Amino acid sequence: MVGLVRTLPEPDQMTFGLPRIAKLVTGNPEAIVRGSYLLTEWLKNIRPAALDENALPEWQEVVDALVVAGNRALAPYSD
Fold this sequence. Notes:
Number of strands: 0
Shape: globular
Order of helices and strands: HHHHH
Helix content: over 70%
Radius of gyration: 11 Å
Number of helices: 5
Distance between the termini: 25 Å
Strand content: under 5%
Oligomer: single chain
């Protein structure tokens, strides 16, 4: 899913992609953290766009769920 979403313009990544990915991640973050190699870099890359598009709370929720599930690479971005 991230592979497809990241090809969209950044505003669309926030309005269309992030909510869908958030739903997948928060549904089972342990499974996602083990199986998605694109997600971490995508989340890091879209953080500025999340700020610009007022999507930071949703972005933060995804990051925090992944960190709790064991994603150490996103730990510096977790609240």
